[in-house]
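Notebook p. 47: complex prediction with flavin mononucleotide.
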Amino acid sequence: MQLEDVIAKRYSVRKFSGEPVSGGDLGAVLEAVRVAPSAKNQQPVRVLVCSTPEELAKIDACTPCRYGAPVVLVFACDDDRRWKKENRADCGPVDVSIAATYAMLEATDRGLGSVWVMNFEAAKLTEAFGLPANIRPICLLPLGKAAPGAEPGPNHALRVPLSEILLKREGR
Ligand SMILES: Cc1cc2nc3c(=O)[nH]c(=O)nc-3n(C[C@H](O)[C@H](O)[C@H](O)COP(=O)(O)O)c2cc1C
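Predicted complex, structure tokens below:
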């Protein structure tokens, strides 16, 4: 697909078929994560791939937003690696968000659906999976084939006009 078609096709899938994701598709999504840019190339992005019934049960205990996906990618930041200087932005969550966006778009290109999830209990997830203190969960990405009849939610079509996005400068 052309990139513009991928972007136009993506929407938050909230009803998955449950059909397993192939190793090839999962590998391509993870490769997109791997090559994503990061601040000072520190590459702090870490991903926990959850797909076994035990892993998915742990995910379900932390969020109501799996929507039946057969795979959930837990995107995390290695706080020992991220670029963060005094009086400067914490680039860790930015790096993770870029990588998760790459994953979403690669998934869309491969006919998979996904949804970005931040409605989850990070502390509970950290404990459930025994994550070390430097690994900070940022977001979840449930992934899989959309169920037949799955459709974009009402918010998908609601976008502000470009005129609201572009900041005006005095005298222009
Ligand atoms: C940072 C972020 C957090 C989000 N958290 C959730 C979430 O916890 N649960 C959920 O169902 N959708 C979540 N979404 C999806 C948004 O609700 C969705 O992107 C928005 O309504 C626009 O719809 P669309 O993705 O179909 O275009 C999140 C999206 C973003 C970017």
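Notes: The chain has a mean pLDDT of 97. The CA atoms of residues 78 and 156 lie 32 Å apart.
Next step: compare against the earlier run before touching the bench.
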